[in-house]
Each structure stands twice: as structure tokens, then as C-alpha cells.
Amino acid sequence: MGDLTENFSSSEFECHCLDDCVAKNPAMQMDADFMNKLQALREVYGGSLTVTSGVRCEKHNESIGGKPDSAHLSAVAADAKIQITRPSPTFSFLSRISEQFMSTTKTFTISSAL
């Protein structure tokens, strides 16, 4: 059980910088509408999504080469990965439905580990 949605916890979306940044402030939480869409995407997929990046402070975003206008800065983006153990239509399926769940300002990046 998560504290943001049924399957996602706020700790998964914290900034990964080493500083005591503004993005680690409890007031800087993921957008509720975005999280509802992400939860719906997970439910359609039927498996777990490992969040690799959520909200970012400007310093961390710059240090990893993020875009200056990245949606991560506004807590409306998540990078995640799924575990695919054999070639599967799962990746293309998730890519297609993620576009339906997320608007252009609320992005979701999927990467597969093959």
C-alpha cells in the first residue's frame, strides 16, 4: 500500500540529489491527477513499475542532463522501468496506452530491461 495511490509511495518519487533541496520538501509532492493516471496505467499493465525518477530539483535535473523545462521540476513526470524477461508485446502495449493516459505535460517514460 502506498501513501500516494494504492501502489505508489511518496518515497519512490523523491529527488535523488544529495542536497537538502526544495524537491525533498514534503510540500513538493507529485501531482494528484498525474498519480491517478499512473496508477491506472499500472492497473492496466497488471505488473509492477519501478520508479527511477520522480520530482527533481533544478540542480539535480541539470546534473543529469534533464531539459530545463522538464515536467519533473513540476512533479508531473515519472521515469519508470518494467522487467520483461522475454521478448513480448508488453513494451509496445505500454507505450501506446501511456499516450492515452498522459497528456503532453504529464509524461511517463518507459524503459525495458531486456
Write the layout of secondary structure elements.
Layout: H1 32-45, E1 50-53, H2 58-63, E2 77-83, H3 90-101, E3 107-113
Parallel strand pairs: 2-3
Antiparallel strand pairs: 1-2
Helix pairs in contact: 1-3
Protein model, in words:
The protein has 114 residues and is α+β, with helices and mostly antiparallel strands. It has a single domain, classed as Muramoyl-pentapeptide Carboxypeptidase, domain 2 (2-Layer Sandwich). The protein is built from three helices and three strands, in the order αβαβαβ. It has helices at residues 32-45, 58-63, 90-101, and strands at residues 50-53, 77-83, 107-113. A three-stranded mixed β-sheet has the order 1-2-3, covered by helices on one side. Strand 2 (77-83), helix 3 and strand 3 form a beta-alpha-beta unit. Helix 1 packs antiparallel against helix 3. The radius of gyration is 14 Å and the shape is globular. The relative contact order is 0.19.
Q: Give the low-pLDDT segments.
A: 103-107, 110-114
Strand order, largest beta sheet: 1-2-3
Percentage of residues in strands: 15-25%
Global shape: globular
Q: Using the CA coordinates, give the radius of gyration.
A: 14 Å
Summary?
Helix 1 (32-45) runs antiparallel to helix 3. The chain is 28% helix and 16% strand.
Features of this protein?
single chain, alpha+beta, Muramoyl-pentapeptide Carboxypeptidase, domain 2, 3 strands
